[in-house]
Amino acid sequence: MTFLSVGINYQTAPVSIRERLVFPAEILKASLQDFWRIKDIKEAAILSTCNRTEFYCTANAADEQIVIDWVAKNKHINPSELTPYLYTHTDSSVCRHMFRVACGLDSMILGEPQILGQMKTAYQAAHEAGTLGKQLGKLFQHTFTAAKKVRTDTAIGSSPVSIAFAAVQLAQQIFDKLSDQTALLIGAGETIELTARHLSQQGIGRIIIANRSYDKAHALAIQFNGYAIALSELPNHLAEADIVISSTASQLPILGKGRVESALKKRKHKPMFMVDLAVPRDIEAEVEQLSDVYLYTVDDLQSTIDQNMLSRRQAAEEAEEIIDTQVNHFLAWLRAQNAQSIIQDYRLQAEQNRDDTLQKALSLLKNGMAPEEVLNRLAHSLTNKLIHTPSTQIRIAAENERHDLVAAAREILKLNSTQ
């Protein structure tokens, strides 16, 4: 039995290839069961995200072609189209790879936490589909343990490395409680959506989203219990905002010094925190001259992100050491499983000897033999039965100069040297 993994990710393939290998939730169970029915596959799981699709299994042999052929058939792709983009791992390499993926060490953004949740979803899907067994199930559990230890013992996830998260973290440093603040987000693209999500997670009091297209602003606002306005309504709502974060594709500034000054007067000069994430800038540079405004640009945040990325790289080195240890722990468990059948057989043999000897002792008691003599015979007979086979095999090993077996016997039986 061997562990086998075949995958494709953002490093090995363009999105035009990756999108053809996606397994959405609605077909995952049926796909897993179909994959699992392959003759040489014993256990199976599929991890499918926008950046990677990976197939994990235990198989009779390390033959990645059976996985490639199944994927090609399932997705109606010629195997030769897939092969250049694929990578393969076997046995201990599978363990290390899964641990690194779950810890975010193999992610586009180093240390990102979402992948661990996606790994747990893959595990749950395989569990519900009935395609997990003892070994692959244990590997997933050990993967989660390793990821938790890396998150706990290193700083790999503590420093923000996205512009949106850095902006929100800066807002938290300026305001004691975000729950008392109103955030005005200008734009409706990916950066603003991510900013809204982070603000919502940190308990922002109120979110207003302004965009040229009201429908886009509304669609985004309802996700976060926010309020949508058209960009033309901005002057009427700017004074409500304690936090303003802007990221649009406008070629001209959206907020000028005069408009912000007017808003500050309405606010009775209560300070405003403003972040301009756009290039070209959405907020005129002159706004920074206003004494009640804290204005930051994307360049201001980038230096923080660069420092945090360096911190994550240092944490990643620590994480690799933890992963080395965790891989060794899992492999030790795996090796122990190989001896499990021997232990079970040895225990059954010992129990059979015990039962046979006990029956003879009970017969002697029924026939009137003194209990003390029966006990002596039972102890003597049971001892002889338990040591007979090992003694014979050790003697044969010595006669054949199998010193390794003799030494192993001394170690297994925990015998002190008599010499």
CATH class of the largest domain: Alpha Beta
Question: What is the domain tally?
Answer: 3
Number of strands: 10
Question: What is the CATH third-level topology name of the largest domain?
Answer: Beta Polymerase, domain 2
Strand content: 5-15%
Estimate the helix proportion, in percent.
Answer: 55-70%
Structural class: alpha/beta
| Secondary-structure element pattern, one letter each | EHHEEHHEHHHHEHEHEHEHEEHHHH
Q: Which geometry do the CA atoms define? A: elongated
Largest sheet: 6 strands, parallel
Stretches with pLDDT under 50, minimum 5 residues: none
Going by CATH, the architecture of the largest domain would be 2-Layer Sandwich
Average pLDDT metric: 92
| Widest sheet: strand ordering | 7-6-5-8-9-10
State the gist of this model.
The protein is an alpha/beta fold and 419 residues long. The chain has 16 helices and 10 strands.
Notes on the structure:
There is one protein chain. The protein is of the alpha/beta class. It has three domains: 2-153, Beta Polymerase, domain 2; 163-305, NAD(P)-binding Rossmann-like Domain (Rossmann fold), CATH 3.40.50.720; 346-412, no CATH class. Helix content is 55%, strand content 14%. The protein contains 16 helices and ten strands. It has helices spanning 15-18, 25-36, 64-75, 79-82, 92-102, 114-129, 134-153, 163-174, 190-201, 214-221, 234-237, 257-266, 298-338, 340-366, 371-399, 403-412, and strands at residues 2-9, 41-48, 52-59, 87-90, 182-186, 206-211, 227-230, 243-246, 272-276, 293-297. The strands form two sheets. It has a six-stranded parallel β-sheet. It has a four-stranded antiparallel β-sheet with strand order 2-3-1-4, sandwiched between helices. Helix 10 links the parallel strand 6 (206-211) and strand 7 (227-230). Helix 5 packs antiparallel against helix 13 (298-338). The mean pLDDT is 92.
